[in-house]
Structure formats: C-alpha cells, structure tokens
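Take a look at the protein record below with the fold in mind.
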Amino acid sequence: MQTTDVLQDQVADAARPLSVSLASERVGSIDRLRVLAAIGIVWFHTDDAPCREIGYAGLPIFLLIFFSLITIRNAEAPLSGFLRRRCDRLLKPWLFWSALYGLLRLARAAFLSDADSLVEMLSLETILMGTHIHLWYLPYAFAWGCVLYAVNRRTTRVGHMAVVLPAVGIGLLLLVFHALCLSSARWARPLPQWEFGLAAVPLGFAIGRSRMIPSRQQRQWLLSVVVLAVLAVCGVLTVLGRATPVIPHALAIVLVCLAYGRPVNESVVVAALAPLTFGVYLIHPLIHRGLACFITPEQHCAAFIGLTVCLSGLATLALMRTPVRRFV
C-alpha cells in the first residue's frame, strides 16, 4: 500500500465518531506517571530544591491524566452517576481536608494570637480553594471535569479529528497566554494556580479523545501530533525567552502521551503505590512541616523529599484502613 494511502486511512479512522468499545483498562505506564507526579509535587514544594520547575511538571501530569480519563471513561455515563462519583472523589475530600487544615490554622493562630490569620480564614480565597493552597486542585478538577463531561457528551457523534485538533489549538493558545502573562503571579490566590492549569484542560481532553480511536497505530499517530504541536510552540517560546513557564507543561505532555502511546503491563509495586498518590498529595504539607523541625531541606534536599514522600505514603496507607479512607 502506498504511504499516502496509509495516511488517508489514518485520517479517515480518526475522523470517525466516538467508539464506545474502547480500552479503558488500567495502563501501567499511567500509574507509573502518577507516582512520579506525586514525587514531583513534593519536590516543587520543597524550598530551595534544585530544578523545581521540573518537579512542578507533576501538577500538569495529574491534570492531563485526570481530564483524559474523564473523557475516556465517561463518554456514556449518566450525569447523576458522574456527579456522584466526582463529588465522592473530589469535593468530599476537599471539604474534609479543608476542615482539618482549617482547624490546624485556627489552633496555630490562637496560640500565636495571630488575628490576621483568623481574618484570612474568612476570605474569598478560602472559599475558592480551601484552607491550604494545595487544595485548590480538587474543586478546580471537579469544575472542569464537569465541563469536559458535557463537551464530550455533545461531541460523541463528531469525528475524532474534528474534536482533537480544535482542542489542541485552544490548549496551545492557553499555553502561550500562560507563558506571556507576566502579571498572573501577582494575582490573588488561587487565580495564578487556575491560570497555570488551564492549558491542561483542552490538552487532556484531546489526549482522551485520541486514546478513544480503536486502532493503536492511529492513536499513536494522533498523540504524536499533539506532542509535536506542543513542543513546537514551546520551542518558539523558548527562543523568546519564556521557557521557564512552559517547561512543566512540555514535560507533562511528552510523558503522558508516551505513557498512553506505549502502555506497559502493571507491576506489583506500581499497582500498590499508585492508589497512594492522591493521599500523598493531600497529606504531604503536614509531613513537610513536621520533618522541617528535624531536617533542614536546604542541606539535605534529596533525603527530605524522599522522607516526605515515604511518610506521606505510609500515612495514606494507614488512613486507608480507617473510616476516613474515602477521603484519601
């Protein structure tokens, strides 16, 4: 068969509407990425750690995986079931951990007679993100997950190519906006965090729809298009001196697309560690603060990060054996 015929077949298959007989199985390479992403988040949150922007790739990795799986697994799920599962997995943990971190903040403010901290607890910032900065991720993922669910349902009869390419285009525009928006760091929290995560929403959707193509060869072809488009834009931004803001996104896109394009079998170790990653994300600020009383992060950075991840994982494992397991 001629090369042009092969390309025409790939384009034709990618242009077909949604097929629900897709592989929504657990992908071992994705679980490996979830473990790496959790380590990356702890790395980023460790003050004075080297190359923190690389560790920050963990956040867009989490977002890309979440939004792609929302797209893959909920194409025909009823709205009530979708909302119930997302509330159980995102909003209820958000409320629980907001209450816990809030109580700790109140206790600290009372001990230090810090009236400003008490006032801050009643601010709009707390309502939007929770009582600790890292909790912004949960309501953010819930809100955009609902948007993508609606978009996915409305485009089930639209060809994959007609959905993926516009989504990639929107993602690239948001990536450029993020790189060039110099003032976002001065916005009130959680606006800078929301702005940082925006590009992952359409790009995660594009990856999810690419994954839904029945043919493995054609899935890989479209995922390659996503990667090359993002890398091309990031290359231009690097030439313009705006590399640092887009490094996490570029790394995340490459790793997530590679994980979907080259799936591997689930190992016993990864299968045991992957379910702990959500809890590690939620708990690690507490472990981080406690460890800092005994270990100086600046002097023992690698050991500090490793201990924080391990102790957060053990704490998560312990909580999974208690009635609060639904919140980790």
Observations:
- The CA atoms of residues 36 and 102 lie 28 Å apart.
- The chain has two domains: 43-49+267-328, 57-266.
- The longest helix spans residues 79-112.
- Residues 57-266 form one domain.
